[in-house]
Every structure is written in C-alpha cells, then in structure tokens.
Design goal:
The structure is a homodimer. By secondary structure, chain A is of the alpha/beta class. Chain A is built from eleven helices and ten strands. Chain A has helices at about 15-25, 45-65, 75-85, 95-105, 120-125, 125-135, 145-150, 160-175, 190-200, 205-220, 245-255; strands at about 5-10, 30-35, 70, 90-95, 110-115, 140-145, 180-185, 205, 235-240, 260. In chain A, strands 4-3-1-2-9-10 form a six-stranded parallel sheet. A four-stranded parallel sheet of chain A has the order 6-5-7-8, with helices on both faces. Chains A and B meet through helix 7 and helix 8 of A and helix 7 and helix 8 of B. Chains A, B: InterPro entries: Asp/Glu/hydantoin_racemase, Asp/Glu_race, Asp/Glu_racemase_AS_1, Asp/Glu_racemase_AS_2, Glu_race. Chains A, B: It holds the Pfam family Asp_Glu_race. Chains A, B: Provides the (R)-glutamate required for cell wall biosynthesis. Chains A, B: Keywords: Cell shape, Cell wall biogenesis/degradation, Isomerase, Peptidoglycan synthesis.
C-alpha cells in the first residue's frame, strides 16, 4: 500500500477527461495534475519541443513525490514516452498502448481509424503499435488540428464543428473502418458531433478508460494502491491561468477545483 | 544613416504579413524576424505569460544588434508594450497605435469594429486608444479565437471559415460599424472570407501598413534609415520548426526563406 499521489500531465486542460476516468476506477488515489497551459498546444509542435516540455513536466511532478506518472496527452505519449522512460526512474504510462488494445477489442473487420493532432499522426505510433499486435490490421489516420480549438471555444456541436468534422472525417468513413480511436484528450468533448458525422456503425474508442484500468492493474500488481478510506485528495497545477480550466473542469469532473499557477521553465 | 537591422517579433508566423509591409516601404532595410512558434498562440494566454515571453523575444533580438523593434503581434502589443518600453533601451513599436490611426481615418460614422484574439480584446487597448483620440467614437469588439487556427490550417475561405466568420461577425455587423480593424496578424490571410461576410459597406483596416509607415517616419526623423544600395538582408528565426512557416512565407513574401531554430528560453 502506497499513499503517494499519481501524477498526470497534459499539454493543457484536455487531460481532465483522463483524471475523470482515474477517479472512477480508483477513487481513493491522491492525484496531482499538471496542465502546461503556458505552452499549449503540443499537437502542432515538433517532437523535440514536445519532448523537452514533457521532461520539465515530469520533473515538476516528481517534486510532488508521485509514485507513477500518466502522460494524458496523446502527442506527448506518441512522441516522447521512450525518452521519458530512459530519463526518469518512475513508472510512466502513456495513453497510446491502452487505446490500441481497446481498438483491437472493438474492431470486427480489422479496419481501424485514428484521429489526432498533427504531432500524434506524424509520429505513426498508433499504426505501428496496432500492426505489431496484429499484422492483418488496416489503420487509417487523419490529423484534425481544428478540433482542439473548437473544443476550447466550447463549439462542441454547432454548424462550425459539424462542417469541420465532415471535412476531416468524410474520407475516413469511406475507407470502411468500423472503429475510430479518439487519439487526443480533447476529442471526447466533441464525441456527439463526431459520432453523428461518422454514423452509428462506427464505434468510438476513448483511450482514457483503458488507461485508467491499465494503471490500476499495475499498481495492484506492485502493491502500490492507496487503500486509505475516503476520497483521495486532488491538486491541480497549470503553467498559465486560463478560463478554459474552469469550463472543462466543471464539464469533466463536476467540481470547481481551484488550480495553482507555477513557472514550469524552472523545472 | 544606420545599417543595423530592424527587429520584428511575433507569436508565430502571422507577423510575416508585417514584414511584407516593411519590405514594401523600406526595401533597403535589413530585417531580423523572430517567431515564437514553440509557444504560439499568445492570444489565449494571460498578460503575465505574454509579457514574459515578449521580454525574452526582445532580449533575443537585441543580441542581433537591432536598431528598433516592431512588436508585430497584436496580443503582445496590447498587453506588454509598456512593460517592454520600461525594461529596454531601444525604440519599440506596436501595431495598435498605427491601427487606431488608420481606423480613425477610415470611419465616417464614428462606429468602429475591432476583431482580435481573446488577449487583445480583454486588454481593451484598441477601445482605450480610439476613445482617447476622439471621445465621440463608438467601438465594438469581438474575440475570434478560431481565426488563427483556421488560417494556420490553410482553411482561409471554405465552408468552415465562412460559418465561423458568420457566427463571430453577425452581431458586429448589426451594430452599424463602417470600419473593421483586423486586430491580429493572421487575419489578413482570411481577408476575403471576412470581407464577404461583413459586406462591401464595411472597410477592412489592416494595421500592418500603417505600422510600416510609422516606423519609416521615425527612422527618417532620427537619421536611422539604411540608405545602402540594393535589397536588405532578411534573417528568420523560430523557436520551433513548423510547416506553417513555409506556407505563410511563400504566401506573404513570395520567397522560400529558410528559418533557423533557436532556444528562446535561453534569453
């Protein structure tokens, strides 16, 4: 048994959808969340920039004595996970492997779609890992850079988001996929709009749920679960103040947590 | 006469539309451009973050021995110009004052619209400066955060940008404005779409042209113009590599300049 917190970082506030899933399966755990709102988004930046920022984020979380770290950001998970594991001596989990496993369970016709930021798509991480598991799989990817600012604007289901979804997803639907991975933590906020665009025949896969389950299994196996009574403590840190935190926090966690602002360039 | 370069910085690549105007009116000048592509956008970040980043950008440009600095970014001009002038001993120009002067020349009915990022609109800089010049002016502002990612996606005139423009600008048109300031360096890239949405009766004001003229007048007055023969040298620096630079550079400057990547956190 280990009462130290679980650390979670994301490029911004989208990772709160991952915190939501952790709280569901492991309510007793203490959680320290860091959102890099001063440098968001990561999805349009280079692998080098994303890796540099991710290392600073991990150093900050380690200063909070976390027992494990979840990289909630798909772009950082796709581009920087190996570099983080080589650099730091703490268990680090990404969202890509759990997302891949969930997609493999979901598909019947072996045709999987993946949408994400330009950085996630460019990395090829989803295709590589899906095909490593089953070489018969066909993977079709599409970068949807506008989905993040649409979600942050609160335009999750209006004429603009529907037109954008149509433009991004039309070709993907035509490939005959039966499962679509939401490969960015912001995309679950657009779930209804994306679902209506691709139709009911295509199942939407959210890696956050599978990630929470995977981390729980690891903690259990290594006797690191927090078995204290009561609901765990939550701490939220951002690198810049933003109105979006309040909006997404209320939407994802149904509670008005107060974030603390820190200078991430110090780490 | 002074052959030292003019320094220009922007949050990203939008400021190349300002470089274009400088090259038009002062072709002999050497120019050093810095685009903070590692931390773009500024428009959704706090005043504190924007000021901190802007100071680092000025320190970098000073290391290139510039004779004057243009803050091409409206968000930084609106939020951080005073702090920069207090900190550094070099002539520093923003884009807001020239934009205001151009808008005052343009309007006949004394009703001016201003569109910009959330950071620019929140600062109130345009309203304050317009009303300081003429207290009878009525100013109507609207933040259009999605216009930057739309321009960067290359969706400058399609169904998505038209729907977004309609949503953002409908109320502004209804106020009866006869002039609209494009208060963000990215917005001239969407000029056609914005113009069609607001109609021909509303004149679009681009602060970049007036900024270039203002800087030229200052350099002339202080005997700092570069009177060498031939076209000035251009140097482009970014804090992260990005495909967007190539696209916007070709569109704005009609020349494939090669940017150099630097670590802005060192400054």
């Amino acid at each position: 048994m280990d009462t130290r917190p679980i650390g979670v970082f994301d490029s911004g506030v989208g990772g709160l959808t991952v915190v939501k899933q952790i709280m569901k399966v492991m309510p007793h755990e203490n959680i320290v969340y860091f959102g890099d709102t001063a440098r968001v988004p990561y999805g349009t930046k280079s692998k080098e920039a994303v890796t540099k920022y991710s290392k600073q984020n991990v150093r900050f979380l380690l200063s909070k004595e976390v027992k494990a770290i979840i990289v909630a950001c798909n772009t950082a998970s796709s581009n920087s996970l190996d570099a983080l594991r080589e650099t730091f001596d703490v268990p680090i989990f990404g969202v890509v492997v759990p997302g891949v496993e969930e997609a493999l369970r979901s598909t019947k016709n072996k045709k999987i779609g993946v949408i994400g930021t330009p950085g996630t798509v460019r990395s090829g991480a989803y295709e590589r890992m899906i095909c490593e598991q089953d070489s018969e799989m066909q993977v079709f990817t599409k970068a949807c850079p506008l989905f993040v600012p649409l979600a942050e604007e609160g335009w999750t289901d209006n004429e603009v988001s529907r037109q954008a979804a149509k433009r991004y997803l039309e070709e993907l639907v035509a490939t005959g996929i039966d499962s679509l991975v939401l490969g960015c933590t912001h995309y679950p906020l657009l779930k209804r709009c994306i679902g209506q665009t691709v139709g009911e025949a295509i199942k939407l896969v959210d890696p956050a749920k599978a990630t929470a389950r995977r981390v729980m299994a690891f903690l259990k196996e290594h006797d690191l679960l927090n078995e204290s009574e009561g609901v765990g403590e939550k701490q939220f840190y951002l690198s810049d103040s933003t109105d979006t935190f309040r909006f997404v926090c209320q939407k994802a966690l149904k509670h008005p947590y107060e974030p603390e602002i820190i200078d991430i360039e110090m780490y």
